[in-house]
Design brief:
Blueprint lengths: L2 H20 L6 H8 L3 H7 L3 H30 L3 H17 L9 H7 L6 H26 L10 H21 L5 H17 L5
């Protein structure tokens, strides 16, 4: 990696950790450059202002998140042709992935940006909104494939069900931190998995 690129990534790593720890407003450019051991002019060489840093962080985070989810749920479709069973396998692997994080999930930039949306310009807020909608669309597509084969046992809006994936993950992250138990997120994903099974799998006579 070229030195300039390495410096940019280092600045973003430092900023992301600080923002997830204490929020965007409480994270200053001064503390970022102090930890990165560069000058303020060095920072502004890479980012013209704090909003540009926020935008770059969010785009990097979303690209990484998409790669993880594409790999995880794409792999499960290779393992099982049935969309419901493939999704259940994916949720199990997702839960295990979260359980393997020794200190728990560090936090979600999308949620953090929502909490601090007034601090960002319109462009950053729109990217964040689209990110949430992309999660909805990703899982809505999965549930639409499932419901074509497995009619739900109760009347459920598939869009709301797709949003429930985000709600489960974000809520699990918050609860993990609130009760200081890194495994809460993993257990919440498994609980959502159980709900999906109960909703779609026919009862055994």
């Amino acid at each position: 990696m070229r030195k300039g690129r390495a410096t940019r990534e280092k600045l973003m790593d430092i900023a992301e950790a600080a923002i997830l720890s204490k929020g965007f407003g409480a994270t200053s450019i001064e503390e970022i450059i102090a930890e990165a051991e560069i000058t303020k002019s060095g920072f502004f060489y890479h980012f013209k202002d704090k909003n540009e840093l926020a935008r770059a962080l969010l785009l990097r985070y979303l690209a990484s998140e998409e790669q993880i989810l594409d790999g995880l749920f794409g792999r499960t479709r290779e393992l099982h042709d049935d969309p419901l069973h493939a999704f259940l396998i994916g949720l199990k692997l997702f839960s295990e992935m979260m359980a393997d994080l020794p200190s728990g999930h560090p936090g979600c930039l999308v949620a953090t940006y929502c909490y601090n949306e007034r601090l960002f310009d319109r462009d950053v807020r729109e990217i964040n909104r689209q990110a949430v909608l992309q999660w909805r669309q990703r899982f809505l597509q999965i549930f639409e494939e499932i419901v074509a084969i497995y009619p739900p046992r109760e009347e459920v809006d598939m869009e709301d069900l797709a949003d429930m994936v985000s709600n489960t993950v974000e809520g699990g992250i918050v609860m993990s931190k609130a009760v200081n138990d890194p495994k809460v997120l993993s257990r919440q994903i498994l609980l959502f998995r159980s709900y999906v099974k109960l909703l779609f799998l026919p009862t055994q006579n």
